[in-house]
Design brief:
Number of helices: 7
CATH class: Alpha Beta
CATH superfamily: Vaccinia Virus protein VP39
Largest sheet: 7 strands, mixed
Structural class: alpha/beta
Number of strands: 7
Low-confidence stretches: none
Shape: globular
Radius of gyration: 15 Å
Mean pLDDT: 92
CATH architecture: 3-Layer(aba) Sandwich
CATH topology: Rossmann fold
Helix content: 25-40%
Strand content: 25-35%
Length: 185
């Protein structure tokens, strides 16, 4: 992401309507009981931190990473103990095998997927949900690379234990997602 993206997201998070729209990702709510209750988890592109707060309530230590300083500040105010990092995810890195859970919602950056593989310890949980091409009708000017293609997540993580994978969810027909558990491979 560029500094232009940071400016755009900072402007959005200054808007009170955007701050009030902060809601937990549905996939995270659905899978919460299955996740570990301890360990370290990043909320990738956390926005205002609704997902991070849920993970913390589960018992995980959470590092929220976002390019928007305003979003990180608001997330920190809403969640005491949240480690919020303002970073360009293109340049963000962590040591191998240091994570127990990774969540990545409403943000697609395929170049992160190999790092997810490196960061997540065997047995760690990965949850990704982002927009599929159906969302294109609502966002005609969006970069086509932001949309997950049919079968893309299942293929990218086919060597892991896939708990669930979908190109469209009944309650969220404009989203694709995966819940997978890292293996030793």
């Amino acid at each position: 992401m560029s500094s232009r993206d940071a400016l755009r997201w900072n402007a959005r998070y200054h808007d009170p309507a955007a701050r009030n729209a902060d809601r937990p990702p549905a996939l995270l709510l659905e899978e919460m009981a299955s996740l570990p209750s301890q360990g370290l988890a990043p909320d990738v592109a956390m926005g205002l931190g609704a997902g991070a707060r849920l993970l913390m309530a589960r018992g995980l230590r959470v590092v929220g990473v976002d390019i928007a300083e305003v979003g990180a500040r608001v997330a920190r105010q809403r969640a005491s103990g949240l480690m919020a990092v303002v970073a360009d995810l293109e340049r963000f890195d962590l040591p191998p095998g240091c994570l127990d859970v990774i969540v990545n919602f409403r943000y697609t950056q395929r170049s992160l997927w190999p790092r997810f593989r490196k960061w997540l310890r065997p047995g760690g949980w990965l949850l990704i949900e982002s927009f599929n091409p159906a969302q294109r009708a609502l966002r005609p000017n969006a970069d086509p690379g932001y949309f997950l293609q049919p079968g893309e997540l299942g293929t990218a993580f086919q060597d892991w234990r896939i708990v669930r994978c979908y190109d469209s969810a009944p309650a969220r027909p404009d989203c694709a997602g995966i819940v997978a558990i890292a293996t030793d491979s």
